[in-house]
Write a structure and sequence with these properties.
Shape of chain A: globular
Helix content of chain A: 25-40%
Order of helices and strands of chain A: HEHEEHHE
Oligomer: homodimer
Chain lengths: 137, 137
C-alpha cells in the first residue's frame, strides 16, 4: 500500500543524493509528485459565532492538539484564501485536511481518545461541518 | 516560503541517513509532518450524467492530463470513500486536490494553457463544481 508513496519519496532522496542540496528534496513538478494510495479526509468548519476571532482561535488551538493523533500522515489547517470566484466557497472558518495511509488509519483516528476529547471540548463552537472523504480514483 | 517544507523534508532525509531504510523517509507521525506555507486548492465535481461510468472515466483522464501543469506541487485525484456519516458529503463524482507553494503558483495554474484546454475539453461533463481554496490558518 505504501509502495507508490515510498517510490515518490525515494525519488526525492535520489535527487538529494545527486545534488546535495536540501531544496532538491522537493520534486521538480507534480509529474513527480502524485499522491497515491491515500485516504484524504477534508473537513470544513462553520462557526456559530461567524465573526468571532476568539472562537476561530480556540478551534485552531483544538485542531493543533488534534494533529497529534499518531495515524495522521499529513495535516494542513487552512482558512479561506483571498481568491474569489463564483465556484469558490469561502464561507467556512477553518479547513482541516488530513491524509492517512488507508481506511483503517482513518477509522483509528475517528475513535482516538485525542479525537474524542477534541469533539467534547470544541464542538460547541461550530454550527456546521462538512466532510469529504476521498480515496484514489 | 519553502522554509518549513524543507525543514520537514530534511527531517525525513535525516531519518533515512540514520536507518538506511526507505520506509524511514516517511515521518513517524503527523507531529513530524505539518504541511505549512501551502496553498490548498480542493475541487469537487458533480457530473451531469450522475451514474455514467464513461463520463467519470473521461473526466479522470482529463484530470490526469491536467496534473502535468508545472506549478502543481502535489495532486490527488479522489472519489468518495465508503465512509458514510451524516456530516459526510459523498455525492460528488471526483475530487481534485492540489497543493501549490503559494498564491502566485495557483494563479499561474489557473491560466496555464493545459488548464484552459482542460476546461474547454471537459467542462461539458460536469453539472456543478465546488472549490475550496485554503491557506495556512
Amino acid at each position: 500500500m505504501q509502495h507508490n508513496r515510498r517510490k515518490f519519496l525515494s525519488k526525492a532522496a535520489l535527487a538529494l543524493a545527486a545534488t546535495g542540496a536540501s531544496a532538491a528534496l522537493l520534486p521538480a513538478s507534480a509529474a513527480d509528485a502524485p499522491a497515491n494510495n491515500l485516504f484524504v479526509h477534508h473537513v470544513y468548519f462553520w462557526l456559530k459565532n461567524k465573526d468571532s476571532k476568539e472562537d476561530k482561535a480556540k478551534l485552531l488551538e483544538g485542531l493543533q492538539a488534534l494533529s497529534k493523533v499518531k495515524t495522521i500522515k499529513m495535516f494542513h489547517i487552512g482558512q479561506p484564501a483571498d481568491t474569489n470566484r463564483d465556484v469558490i466557497d469561502r464561507s467556512y472558518a477553518l479547513s482541516w485536511l488530513l491524509m492517512f495511509d488507508n481506511k483503517v488509519a482513518q477509522e483509528s483516528y475517528q475513535v482516538d481518545p485525542i479525537h474524542l476529547d477534541f469533539i467534547k471540548a470544541y464542538s460547541h463552537l461550530w454550527e456546521r461541518v462538512v466532510v469529504y472523504d476521498s480515496v484514489d480514483a
